[in-house]
Amino acid sequence: MKRILYIFGVIGVLALLQWGLTAVLLDGPVRQGPYYYQILVLAGINIILAVSLNLTNGIAGQFSIGHAGFFAVGAYVAASVSYYGGSAIRAAVSFIPPMGQDAVVLLIALAAAALATALAGLIVGIPSLRLRGDYLAIVTLGFGEIIRVLILNIDAVGGARGFSGIPKLSNFFWVYLMAVATVVTVWNLVRSTYGRAFLAIRENEIAAQAMGIDVTRHKVLAFVIGSMFAGMAGCLFGHYTMYLHTNSFTFVKSFEIIIMIAIGGLGSIEGAVLGAVLLTVLPEAFRGFDSYRMIIYSLALILIMIYRPQGILGQKSLFGKKRRKSATIDAGPTGAKSVAAETGVAGKQ
Amino acid sequence: MESFLQQLINGISLGSIYALVALGYTMVYGVLRLINFAHGDVYMLGAYFGYYLSRAVQGKTPSHILDAAVVMLLSMIGCALVGMVMERLAYRPVRKASRLTLLIIAIGVSLLIENAGQLFFGADPKFFPQLIPETHVQMGGLMVTNQQLIVLFTALALMILLNLFIYRSRTGKAMRAVSFNLDAAKLMGINTDRIIALTFALGSALAAAGGILVSINIPGIDPLMGVMTGLKAFVAAVLGGIGNIFGAVLGGLILGLAEVMVAGYGSSTYRDAIAFLILIVILLFKPSGILGKGQVEKV
């Protein structure tokens, strides 16, 4: 009962926010309102991507740099569902109002994206996860690039021209609903038997195996769940931008997601969220520096990693302190201090 | 048949460039277990150094070949310095950190060089001056340009020199020792910091040579030219067995040939995917690359 209340509470709050943001930013008096709105939506999509990659990379310890490939699969599958099948779905549910029809189309596209990317994750994961470390990393990168080149050669989704004419179905509400769902799922997963197994595999694969954990099964599971959420993020992305091009899904995008989780603190869910928000907002905030923007960005990245290699939050958890009363929780900064302060403190040591 | 031989020559020519860049990846990985993602951008810097140097040098020496040699040598020295600075400032402070930290820093350095390149060199492509006038050489039934031959022989000469250095000189022996076991090498009195810096310098110089050789063949250069080439060279290094010098050369040649053949007989849009496809297939059957040694895991 309590759970259902929570769910309706979240939906209610997000719907209210959506209504408020539309009134203030999109139709309202704020200058550049739509621009801020877009940053908010993209931050939400990046949160889904970072948290899902964190499950594979940070929690299960399987270093993957092909996340953009799954993002692409989700985006293109979902876009084709609503582009080619949208009118059929609408006709089937014509008895409900247009807004409800939009929601039905988006949900079906979301489900299709989830299914397709889970399958893609399985196909990529089963052979790749035999490999370790750098070899696993480069093979996932390779799969990501192969997926991109394959999509580039499918004419039905636009090929090199890009896929245009995708209906605008996603907005702040859907993106953040999905982001909350991702965070809650990963959060609960980490605290389940499966999550313990993931952590055990990350810490010591041989020991985990000796304890009776089916290592391969859990690795593939973490990989499939991670890709599935990336696919759903792709669906929301495509239905927000209304245009897809394979250039958005190169290995550079995969690097970006990795940077998000590394900056936030590998393995920490709050860290992934923080990293995603920072990496979406900071490059925009630096726009005033114009052509020096990306130089500042890359320098900041190098300096953060040199002076705070464990990421801003490290392995720490901002919430959930009650359960773990060990001394490590109290030691060191727990809050999300500013990047400058963090690097400054560490630099003096 | 003739067109096949023609493609073969093109493939080997492209493959030898990949091999030169792959050598840098594999050497650095050998000593530090670091994937130096910025290596592809050093290759780009090599081409740009070559561009500015050849505008300064061209016509001031008695022959075209000498022009090209001076440009190449100076650009290699320039990139060797860049490589050493990069190692000193970005990688040495975090040598003990986790692999992921190193990887992210490497990505950061790569982004920094690319963006600085766009700022200083301009984002639009530049036309690399023709250092050596193109002539056609008839070999049997085949037409090859003198430029292709120069690329091929320079690359070959550099690889032989590197091989002699690593397997015949004392410093080369120290380098192999560091790559075998860093701590043990330190205990034997080897100045490991110096060897690591030297490894970066050598790798970067080879990348610069690759950048200039590629620009002699295909004259358009731009600040992002190192991204794809770097990635493919890295794939070549992994394919051959990362950490293994011969593996890098073998991997480079395989990739070059495969790409040219796919572009020549299949569809050129699949050109970028073939490198990764070969990589995946080979790693599935031989998880540590063609010439790599399998590691036995101990508890």
Question: What does this protein look like?
Answer:
The complex is a heterodimer of chains A (349) and B (299). Chain A is built from 14 helices and two strands. Chain A is an all-alpha fold and 349 residues long. Chain A has a domain at 32-250. Chain A has a two-stranded antiparallel sheet. In chain A, helix 1 (2-26) packs antiparallel against helix 2 and helix 7 packs across helix 9. Chain A is globular and about 55 Å long. In chain A, 47% of the residues are buried. The model of chain A is unreliable at 321-349 (pLDDT under 50). With 299 residues, chain B is mainly α. Chain B has one domain: ABC transporter involved in vitamin B12 uptake, BtuC. Chain B contains eleven helices and four strands, in the order H-H-H-H-E-E-E-H-H-H-H-E-H-H-H. Chain B has helices at residues 2-32, 39-57, 64-91, 99-121, 146-168, 170-180, 182-187, 192-217, 225-240, 245-265, 271-285, and strands at 126-127, 136-139, 142-145, 220-221. In chain B, the strands form two sheets. Chain B has a two-stranded antiparallel ribbon with strand order 1-4. In chain B, a hairpin with a 2-residue loop joins strand 2 and strand 3 (142-145). The termini of chain B are far apart. The mean pLDDT of chain B is 87. The interface between A and B is large, with 41 and 45 residues.
